[in-house]
Amino acid sequence: MIRPGTAEDVEPAYHVFRRALWSYLRDIGLVDAASDDDPGTAFARHRHLVEHLADTAAEFHVAVDDGGRLVGLARSIERDGVFQLTELFVDPDDQGGGIGTALLAEAFPVGRGRHRSILATLDPRALSLYHRYGVAFQGALVDISITPEVADIGSDLLAEPVAADSIHRIAALDATLVGFERLDDLRWLAGKRPCVALTRHGSVAGYAFLADDVGVGPIGVADTADAAAALDHVRNAAAREGRGRFSMTTPLANHEAMRWAVGTGQEIEPFFTLILADAPFVSWDRYIGYTPEFFI
């Protein structure tokens, strides 16, 4: 049975997501069983994210079996008319029976949104399904493992802390880069993840949400020439906080970010995410999205 998701479904749905994702990662040889987190620990670390997605969802639907066990979920968000599928996962033991198809029809109906997007794995079954829903390939993201290190930034770009109540300082630039406004999301994120405005002579030239225990980003610059300095600020901040290595999901179209990663010896991980959308509305050459990659 497919039904609307509730607050009580948030944690069980997260566990379905983890089982499905780790099954996929094991199938393609990127992880083994021993590398998975304890489910309770993993949920505690990501709780603020999945609760935010549930609280602000455009659509949230779950599949339950005859015994009432939750076996699948699909969720989408809509921001300023941009409709994004954030999750579609079915428990590995219940895949292949049409549950995913039924969930997607509820959570990502065709024709909704002035733009539509999905950040997708390379799972061929999912890709076959997604292309029936008004999206097509726009680009790819790669995870880069960043080693924190304090280095000379070599730029006049300054990093100034931004709190949730002053998030308007970066909101206009963010909207320019992603193609839609999401002030509430930025305010929520600034309350969970350190944020800085990257300024030059008092004007905002970029912004960065710094690494925390979950991930990093978004990161954006008005001019591609400032990309390396922005990433130096992110890496330096992580080093000063004593953080270990962290992953940054980077668009391959962001040539300056990729050049920085290669030039500073960061490690490109063997995990790719596809950008599917109805049109190229995000400035991926100047933007790095939220990690983990649930949404743009």
What would you say this structure looks like, in words?
- This protein is 31% helix and 29% strand.
- α1 (10-27) crosses α2.
- The chain starts with a strand and ends in an 8-residue tail after the last strand.
- It has 296 residues and is α+β, with helices and mostly antiparallel strands.
- Strands 1-2-3-4-5-12-6-11 form an eight-stranded mixed sheet. Strands 7-8-9-10-13 form a five-stranded antiparallel sheet, sandwiched between helices.
CATH top-level class of the largest domain: Alpha Beta
Spans with pLDDT under 50 lasting ≥5 residues?
none
Which CATH architecture of the largest domain would you pick?
3-Layer(aba) Sandwich
Query: Tell me about the biggest sheet?
Result: 8 strands, mixed
Strand order of the largest sheet: 1-2-3-4-5-12-6-11
The rounded distance between the terminal residues' Cα atoms is: 30 Å
User: What's the shape?
Assistant: globular
Mean pLDDT: 95
Helix content: 25-40%
Number of helices, where a helix is a run of at least 4 consecutive DSSP H or I residues: 8
Structural class: alpha+beta
Please give the number of β-strands. Answer: 13
What would you give as the CATH superfamily of the largest domain?
Gcn5-related N-acetyltransferase (GNAT)
Order of helices and strands: EHHEEEHEHEEHHEEEHEHEE
Radius of gyration, whole Å: 19 Å
Residue fraction in strands: 25-35%
Count of domain modules = 2
User: Which fold name is given in CATH as the topology of the largest domain?
Assistant: Aminopeptidase
